[in-house]
Specification:
43% of the residues lie in helices and 20% in strands. By secondary structure, the chain is of the alpha/beta class.
Length: 323
């Protein structure tokens, strides 16, 4: 009898010694840091995924918006958080692949200070112009830029954003020259586009598509490799003589470095399942996003490739900060 009790106690001790994630992950609320304001192109995917997991799996999420410094403030907070599986966040092209190469004040390393979990969606950028613009298509913008280098003004969501670097990449490939006007918010940017203050604006498709759909502005081109599914008549930038050109603003779930494998596997599996839900896929596509998904290992390799690609664009543009 005593032997049986001893075995039982040892079994219970072994169970208690396992990480919490291995026993029953998650056993409490999961904080999700979104390093941009509510309602934006980064916040919406985070909330759609957390709402799906809450509804389908019964997991509880607390979405924490921590905006500032092109998404690097919230990501820096994430890098310093406990790696217990209960604090995750949203990384993306700008704050993981672009800004660390541009900004000497970014203290985290995107490849060593985070645990890659899963990419959620990718979003092309869209080129919009005022309705009375003389440019009928993106080819007209290219022709005008070649006739008057540096004479055209383009708006972006800010220095170091996906929109900014998408045009930097285009200028390098096509030997073009545009002058950037950065904006801190889409409302002022759209107002200035409509008023002709800038010749064109480049922003993530989810941010510009509603304004194009309402008729406030015209959408001339997208930066995806292929036409976007819900707007197949809008040509790609590549189709105007820029073979192989593509610029995507992806969003992904990441955690602090050293997260338990069990937590990573649970999150990756659940989010992959969410990204196969036809209703959720349709919701993402209606907003200008294409779902991604895949293994955490594949995402790790993809992230390394993106960091290298955009670091090269940053270097070639002379935007690298002195450290």
């Amino acid at each position: 009898m005593n032997k049986i009790k001893t075995v039982a106690v040892l079994g219970l001790s072994a169970l208690l010694a396992l990480p919490a994630a291995a026993q029953d992950y998650p056993s409490g609320n999961i904080d999700m840091i979104v390093p941009y304001p509510p309602g934006g192109g980064t916040d919406i995917p985070a909330r759609l995924i957390s709402e799906w997991l809450t509804r389908d799996r019964g997991w509880n999420f607390v979405v924490l918006n921590q905006p500032g410094a092109a998404g690097t403030i919230g990501l820096d907070q994430l890098a310093r958080s406990d790696a217990d599986g209960y604090t995750i966040g949203i990384g993306q092209t700008a704050n993981m692949a672009i800004n660390p190469a541009m900004n000497a004040e970014v203290e985290y390393d995107p490849l060593t200070d985070f645990t890659p979990i899963i990419p959620i969606v990718t979003q092309p950028v869209g080129i919009i112009v005022p309705n009375n613009s003389p440019f009928e298509d993106f080819g007209d913008i290219v022709d005008a830029a070649r006739a008057d280098p540096g004479g055209l003004l383009y708006g972006t969501p800010g220095q170091g954003t996906g929109g900014h670097l998408a045009i930097e990449r285009l200028m390098q490939q096509g030997d073009l020259d545009f002058e950037q006007i950065p904006y801190s918010g889409i409302a002022q940017a759209i107002s200035d586009v409509m008023g002709g203050v800038v010749d064109f604006y480049v922003g993530s498709l989810p941010s510009v598509l509603p304004h194009a759909n309402s008729g406030s502005v015209r959408l001339l081109a997208v930066s995806s490799a292929e036409p976007f599914p819900i707007i197949p008549d809008v040509p790609t930038i590549a189709s105007f003589g820029f073979e192989g050109y593509e610029a995507q603003d992806w969003k992904a779930v990441v955690g602090p470095a050293g997260m338990p494998e069990e937590s990573v596997e649970a999150l990756n599996s659940a989010i992959n399942e969410a990204l196969k839900d036809p209703a959720l896929v349709a919701n993402f596509e209606s907003q200008g996003s294409v779902v991604m998904g895949g293994s955490s290992e594949d995402f790790k390799a993809f992230l390394a490739s993106e960091v290298e690609t955009w670091s090269e664009v940053v270097d070639a543009a002379g935007l690298t900060a002195q450290r």
